[in-house]
Design brief:
globular, about 40% helix, five-stranded mixed beta sheet, alpha/beta, 2 domains, Nucleotidyltransferase, domain 5, about 325 residues
């Protein structure tokens, strides 16, 4: 069957917090029969796989598309993936994924060709293809969410290096040789990574510190009581209301992120950088002014406006859309 007849793809997104599935129309990225559910992380990899299969089957039934219209199944995986995409190396959030041939498992169940990529790389592909029309090159996508991930499009292809390329969240922004313990520990096992400073889990850590120190009458404490939450979202809401303690926390995190961006800009000289993920999107009115103010001081003199920087246009769907592109 030719490509014009196989014009859709099954897209699967395995995250540490959520699982999502949809049918994607490849021509324009329309999502059909979207499904999302919590990841049963405590139950391990096999439980996650079975829950994904269930919601994927629901998507297929709702779409009413014949299987012959599907070009394949594209898989985004939130963790390390083998360079050839044939197996999972490991997940930092869910046990039991080590060395699993996930594409083969999906292919055997749905009787479709299957391909897999790391979630940061896949999201970059989705944003580049459907958010930027497949034009900017080099192109960088960075997701600031629970963690910080991303991907690079170079010469119109995902750049993977030897399999660990573009692990943007683990670029260093803290280092003190005299007091190494002063650098924040990261989930990767190292210290001082930008993820350990500006990711959602790092901001939650700082929010809890602020909660222990802040007076009862502060705006931060009020937001915490009203939302019954102490997280990155709490910090953002408190800053938007004018809380100075929360603002100091986000200013530090976002200035550190500006330093990371400047390193990437000098290294790759990208035409465009796109920022997605819940933290970046929900705090864009706070993040963008800091990037505008701080980046010129981190970059070489006369660097100018060489790189366009914007927030994602795809409202969190970039990972599923990129997964579909793996089999396009």
């Amino acid at each position: 069957m030719n490509d014009s007849q196989t014009d859709h793809a099954l897209a699967l997104d395995f995250g540490g917090t959520n699982l999502a599935a949809a049918i994607v129309r490849l021509a324009d990225g329309e999502l059909i029969a979207y499904r999302k559910t919590a990841t049963p992380a405590a139950a391990g990899a096999e439980a996650s796989l079975q829950r994904m299969v269930k919601i994927a089957e629901e998507s297929l039934r709702e779409s009413m598309l014949p299987m012959a219209r599907l070009r394949g199944a594209g898989i985004s995986f939130g963790g390390m993936v083998a360079p050839d995409g044939s197996r999972v190396v490991r997940s930092m959030h869910v046990k039991g994924w080590e060395d699993m041939p996930l594409p083969q498992r999906i292919s055997d169940h749905f009787h479709l060709p299957a391909a897999m990529g790391n979630d940061g790389n896949v999201a970059a592909l989705g944003e580049w293809r459907y958010g930027s029309g497949g034009q900017p090159d080099p192109f960088i996508y960075i997701q600031i969410s629970t963690g910080i991930g991303g991907g690079v499009i170079l010469n119109r292809k995902i750049f993977c290096g030897q399999g660990m390329g573009a692990e943007i969240g683990h670029l260093k922004v803290q280092f003190d040789p005299e007091h190494s313990e002063s650098s924040e520990p990261c989930a990767c096992g190292s210290r001082g990574c930008i993820e350990a400073v500006a990711a959602g889990w790092a901001l939650e850590r700082e929010a809890k510190k602020l909660a222990a120190q802040a007076d009862e009458g502060t705006l931060f404490q009020r937001v915490m009581r009203e939302t019954n939450e102490c997280s990155a979202k709490t910090l953002v809401q408190a800053v938007q209301l004018g809380d100075t303690g929360a603002k100091a926390v986000l200013d530090h995190a976002f200035t550190s992120f500006a330093l990371t961006l400047s390193d990437l800009m000098v290294l790759l000289d990208p035409q465009e950088i796109v920022l997605g993920g819940s933290v970046a999107v929900n705090a864009w009115d706070l993040l963008e002014p800091i990037l505008t103010e701080k980046l010129p001081g981190f970059l070489p003199a006369n660097w100018g406006q060489r790189t366009a920087i914007r927030s994602s246009r795809l409202k969190g769907t970039e990972t599923l859309l990129g997964a579909a592109q793996l089999v396009a």
